[in-house]
Amino acid sequence: MRRAAAFLVLLLCLYWTRAQGESGGVTGNDITQTEVQSEILGVIATSDQTNITPDIWAELKELRDMAIKHSVELWKLEQENTAIQARLTASESNNAVLEWKMNASDKEVEELKRENTVLMARMKTSENVMEELKKENTDLQSRVTAFEDKSTVLEVRMNASETEVEELKRQNAVLETRMNTSENEVEELKRQNADRPKVAFSFGLTDDGQVGPFSTDITLKFSKVFTNFGQAYSPTTGHFTAPVRGVYYFSFTTVDNRKSVQSVVTLYHNDKRVLWNQNSNDEHGWNRVSNSLVLQLEKGDEVYMVLHGGYTVYDNSGNHSTFNGILLFPL
């Protein structure tokens, strides 16, 4: 019976405490011991009016304190629940923002994936280009090495060439000295040569064909002038007269076009026969006599050609018979 009464009192306190909490809340000082006692007495009176021992007051007080504590805790929980509800609302708003950001991020990720695919393709192309450039670089390196080797060889050759150039410069200096000396000698020779007489002649016999035969020896008069420097040969007399003392060179050629005949010509120095020349031919004709010699002549000496009596020579525009002479050097 005691426990039932205590239970009823506890229910009453909880109901009263809840009502007070909904109307603004209570504190421990708002409930007096008299009010509690009155309510308890009313309850006890309706419960077969059973006598309650003084210990129940202590239990009721303890129950009251527990009810107040629970009411306060309940109020705190409701406040916390309100705060949590507000935080939940804020979290939902934040979650919506985050979801929007996530969608935007997903789009950015897709765009980045697409760009990454493009970049991968470009990277592959760049790698291929890089490999090609590496190959070209290797080839260029080989060529550079070859050029360096050639450059080394060329440098060695250049050093050798520079040495040769220096030697050639030295030799050139020597040659230049000799050249200057030679030029001086040439100038001296030119001066001396200018003072020397210039004597040379070359004549053809005639354009009239056959000359001779004559009953006696005659001097051949070569009348066709090719050259006659110094005018030392006279086509009128057929004599060459030495203008200066010196060494002279003479040559001659005569032709006879008759068949089965002999040809005899002689070269004279003054009145002395120097060369006696004879030749014969067969029935085919064209008998030729040629000879040459070097003579030392005094100034005024004469040289000429003589055709022996009974013999003939031949000449025409072909210049088959000629007489030539030149001063080699004066004495």
UniProtKB/TrEMBL annotation:
Signal peptide: 1-21
Superkingdom, taxonomy of origin: Eukaryota
Residues annotated as domain C1q: 194-331
Gene Ontology CC annotation, any one: extracellular region
Primary location recorded for the protein, binned into one broad class: secreted
Residues in coiled coil: 60-192
Gene3D superfamilies given in the database record: 1.10.287.1490, 2.60.120.40
UniProt keyword list: Coiled coil, Secreted, Signal
InterPro entries assigned to the protein according to its UniProt record, in alphabetical order: C1q_dom, Cerebellin_Synaptic_Org, Tumour_necrosis_fac-like_dom
SUPFAM superfamilies named among the record's database cross-references: TNF-like, Tropomyosin
Keyword Translocase among record annotations: no
Subcellular localization, as worded in the UniProt entry: Secreted
UniProt entry tagged with the keyword Lipid metabolism: no
Protein name per Swiss-Prot or TrEMBL: Complement C1q-like protein 2 isoform X6
Organism: Scomber scombrus (Atlantic mackerel)
